Batch of 3 targets.
Target 1
Amino acid sequence: MAREASGGARDFARRPVRLQRRSEPSGKRLAVSCHERSMLRGPAAVWAALGPLLWACGLALRGGMLYPRESPSRERKELNGLWSFRADFSENRRQGFEQQWYRTPLRESGPTLDMPVPSSFNDVGQDRQLRSFVGWVWYEREATLPQRWTQDLGTRVVLRIGSAHYYAIVWVNGVHVAEHEGGHLPFEADISKLVQSGPLASCRITIAINNTLTPHTLPPGTILYQTDTSKYPKGYFVQNINFDFFNYAGLHRPVLLYTTPTTYIDDITISTSVNQDTGLVDYQIFVEGGEHFQLEVRLLDEEGKVVAQGTGGRGQLQVPNAHLWWPYLMHEHPAYLYSLEVRLTAQTAAGSVSDFYTLPVGIRTVAVTEHQFLINGKPFYFHGVNKHEDADIRGKGFDWPLLVKDFNLLRWLGANAFRTSHYPYAEEVMQLCDRYGIVVIDESPGVGIVLVESYSNVSLQHHLEVMEELVRRDKNHPAVVMWSVANEPASFLKPAGYYFKTLIAHTKALDPSRPVTFVTNSNYEADLGAPYVDVICVNSYYSWYHDYGHMEVIQLQLATQFENWYRTYQKPIIQSEYGADTIAGFHQDPPLMFSEEYQKGLLEQYHLVLDQKRKEYVVGELIWNFADFMTNQSPQRVMGNKKGIFTRQRQPKGAAFLLRERYWKLANETRYPWSAVKSQCLENSPFTL
Ligand code: BDP
């Protein structure tokens, strides 16, 4: 007999110390708070048009999460490379806490492995047990600090962890400094006092990470104990999940130290709009660590010329004849980025100090009507992909060559957009999207919400906090045009209505300038969350998970589904997933499932309907998936999900060429001002006119 875990799972995930909010409200904050109720959705077009006004009373986000950039007042030191590592294989997984492994160097409490950071710990070793390990793992590394950092008391030293999946506790020199729940967003700890209190020029960073998922984590999961001793050894359990990707874990993104002065620019929020030819940049600057300061801001164009300037913590910069940030392929000068230079001058007991931060700014507007998605007032059609962050032995570890390769493939394909399925991606990914003009639907890790327990208040509270963290991190990226709060939740369950109403209203209160959605696979009549979204994003797998092999039913089923959704809601629709598993190199004619021909045939059937409906209200199509990716083992998965149009090694299947032809044609049709697109990747592209 099996029972759902309660004690055990919670044991593994239990927080030994209370979760600390990153920073408490401060009297000095400049943002104006406004009651959430006033942010509840009116007609989409109205709130989108009112974006800049509403922004002024957006729900105040507490604590900045500016990307750590170098500047004349800020230094950074990456801690990537080899860390010491140990998985706690003890029965209750808590030996590390019982023996306080953080108190002394990890090698003193037992054997350690070398573990690369960033990477997942799962696939770099030869140990099957480590690959599927559930519980606490321990990472440790010594960092040598520049003398100034440890001796200049006017310097603030911050430890930043780009992502630790799933739950993390951090110590520096054995002292607890931070704790964080959630595997896809950064968190920080001010460690100045610790590193400036003694003669040490180095510090020991210990991070314990737990990958256990519970019904209240995002994504959710459960631990299943197998208690039939005739079949399983004592204490046997497995982690169950309701999402279709491998639960890679570890330090997935860069870990670094950076400095600021002790009075510093903590956060910047910008919001842009356009009035005739004038670009408007509303800014708010949040300062911490001091009361007496001046702020100066300058907006520079790409040539470095100052085009507008201002002073103070909030204001509006006006840019006559502004260059707008356009998606790539939509305009001949896409992705124009200004630089917002912020200079803080503060008077401290030790004299005057300065802090500098430069933020890339794209001026653009986003709005939604009953049947269109508008960027800069022009209809935008999403022709792109869904992605995952994993590849080969590094699992979900951040990797520059992979990132550049993926963006080269996106541009080869003519993809103008992707969704960060099914969790927030690395900040460096978002930065490249800004620079290249690739539009992003930014998705939270709300995937696999199918249990009633996952709709509880505990879960909702955490989901609201995750949206705060996500908006805080990504709010200034022009590439981000919509938030997605979840993927394929059981939105037909009774509590889903209140859950999504609250979650979407909260996200809009955090950021009134962007539409909000979640991605559904529920029936249009049963979906209790759909009334609250601005754009209907719907996944379907006709002739794959139903009517196997019968591609002839696709057109009828897809057209009917679109019509039903539109008749019910009169909102624009995105085909947010569709696809077929395909083993690269399998060929079969007439096409059979899993062959390259079947994948192409299925896509073509979808395209016939998309081509009709995009003349009406369908505003986008995102293939599932850009590349093959790893999943849990199951008889339905052949070493992972094979719905990629590229293999996991990023080589094209036949469908990649089909989509490439389609996307470049779509680009030619939807370009503004009207003129032919030139392929950025291949001089002799058949689509270069
Ligand atoms: C969709 C999910 C996605 C899966 C895909 C599939 O959103 O995460 O990988 O199905 O089954 O339902 O390939």
Note: The two ends are 66 Å apart (CA to CA).
Target 2
Amino acid sequence: MFSLSSPPFQLLCCLIVLFILPLPSRSADPDPLQDFCVADLNSSVSVNGFPCKPAEQVVSDDFFFDGLRKEGNTSNIFGATVTSANVFTFAGLNTLGLSTNRVDFAPGGINPPHSHPRASETGVVIVGKLLVGFVTGDNVFHSKVLSPGEMFVIPRGLVHFQLNVGEGKALAFTSFNSHFPGVVISSTSLFGSTPSIPNAVLTKAFQVGDDVINGIRSKFGS
Ligand code: GLV
Ligand code: MN
């Protein structure tokens, strides 16, 4: 047998790392196979992503998007709104493994606990003060109050939120390593699904009575 510091053992470790690193399960969206593939959102062909618009029909405007210029309407129960530049709104992102959100907050507004099944997220605060937090797979809560110019990262799939803790409005831009990261909002997916999750599941899961579950359901329309 060889020891941990022996060259054969180190060579074996290097080979294991080299084989494991490229496995698709470690990445977000797959790498593109061409320079660009502006999505043809009207195609009837169904693939993992969208088929490409014919290259001769691609124009400069396919690579630009002005949908994040305007402040979002924050008149909703959360006092915050997310405007997305993803493959559905900005077809030029198709296959590139990237997207961006603009998140506007009224005073006291919250982007409620949610997760993204297909991407990690980074974010930069542009205006105001945000309490940003996420919970790890072993239930450790990490959080920090961020000011303009400061940045955060949320590892893929973990539940996270941003709460406006400043005096006025707040604004952040977030980025994802997927052209369509997806979003699962904890409260609406548990209490606002169609059809509803049975009370027997939710009362047991949260260790409360039907009255509490029905009270929360009534806020999320299920
Ligand atoms: C913020 O968490 C976002 O998903 O844009
Ligand atoms: Mn998010």
Note: The two ends are 63 Å apart (CA to CA).
Target 3
Amino acid sequence: MTVLPAADAPIPIFTTLKEVYGSLATAAKHAERWDQLVREFETKFGHKPTYVARAPGRVNLIGEHIDYADFGVLPAAIEHDILIACAPRPASTVAAHPDGHAPGSVVAENLHTRYTRQVFMPTRRHTLGDDVPLDAVRVAPWHLDIDKSELRWESYVKAGYYGVLNHFFSPSSVSSVPVPVDILVTGNVPPGSGLSSSAAMVVSSTLAFLAANGIFDGEKAPTKPTKGELVNIAMENERRVGVNSGGMDQSASVIALPGSALYVSFVPSLHAEPIGLPRDAVFVCANSLVVSNKAESAKHQYNLRVAETLAAARLLSHRLNLQVDSTDGDNTKRRLVTLREVLARKSGFYQDEQDAQLEDLGQLRKGLVDVLGIAMDYLLPEFGNRTDISLDEMINKSGMDEAEFREVYLSGVDAETTKFELYLRAQHVLEEALKVLKFREVCLAGGGNEESKLQTLGKLMNDSHDSCHRQFDCSHPKVNDLVRVARSFREVETGRGKGRIYGSRMTGAGWGGCTVSLVHREDVEAFIKHVKKKYASYEGMSEEDLASCVFATEPGMGACVYKFTN
Ligand code: GLA
């Protein structure tokens, strides 16, 4: 097994499309989109782009809603991507724009006609009042207005820009300022479909502003981030649109390599390992057409699940008497604890390099089984399958007082509810983490019977879906219908026997979006035809639209910057 320090690699700067997509054939499919982007950029801005930043969407094969509990996940990048053409605004065109000369001002256009031109610029906010001269105080961080209650396309562009401003244009200096930038965005990752359009937007925006500010060139190049650093910046950036997401989407979008899925783990630090897939395995995505924008519904759905799993971890750690908080004299400093930390502490593996030993997957598995048992012994009799646990009840059993609990658990995670579920959420997370380990192991096992490998992977995917639906309550009736349609392919006569579908599940945050199905390479065409015909919401759609709803995907290349050489 080769473990590449994939997260430590530099962000690639390419000058050909073949490098960007990892193969000539894939590059050829996208060439016209790139040409159009470059042509339109010149028409709209009157000058040529200097770079295109590219970030792909991802499909998660297995490991849903466990990255924010710090457990490893197994996604792959897809071919669909967001492209942002960009260039510093040349002095000759500055006069044509209001505030065109202002440091860091942005004119943002989108090729999609639904999205209108946006002009914005960052400001530096300090808290001492406007009459205090900027150079008399430590200059405050850069600020951009993002209205979380009304997210718009440019909110994601701004979210990406935020990190660039505050990581690369130091708040403590008044001299280092960003240049005015023109950008043009296009993309084919369907929004709200569980294929991570938001991470692709934020990653590509981060890259575009880095590139336009010369961070990949000349004397600034030494400050350029590694892939791992870009993931961390992009995660931080995405929280600016109000989602407490884990790091799976950004890792897949940034670190993925063509031809393999990625096992991404987060503790003791971000680590990504390319995982080869069985030769005959093809993953097919199908869009349920139920749009679920995780940022818009975060308070009641995504962030609530983050709060529930964190609360379950806190209650377990209290019950197990684990020392998770630091003390300073008589003061106890409370902090967030993840389910993985509970496991690490319980197994005696917590902290720094010791924790890395848990990545000896045998240990991790054993620890997971133990903690699952403890969760069942304690959370199950205490709360059972109740979905109406009140905040008071939870606080009572957390070992914390109300003010502390609210501060640590509810102020950092933007969730709104009066009712929580704990046992089923924790059970899902711990069992799903075990499924990921098994999936990874099957993929890595040399030799063996190909058909039985595919069957094992498919069963893990089916079980994962059922757990997302029943225990984590993050599916949607239509997504469940689509999964049923996919699984029913096993009744279809293909001419080579019954249809070889091994497993099907929702992918991504859920509450709508796409499914991913594992299908035998030889049966992919028949499978796609079957799903197009049988899923009720596809009725009456044109072949062209259907083609963008159901498609086979090979693991693709991660994010990069394309540099124009003339
Ligand atoms: C979203 C988040 C990810 C992950 C998935 C669910 O895509 O951005 O971090 O939590 O949901 O697995």
Note: The two ends are 42 Å apart (CA to CA).
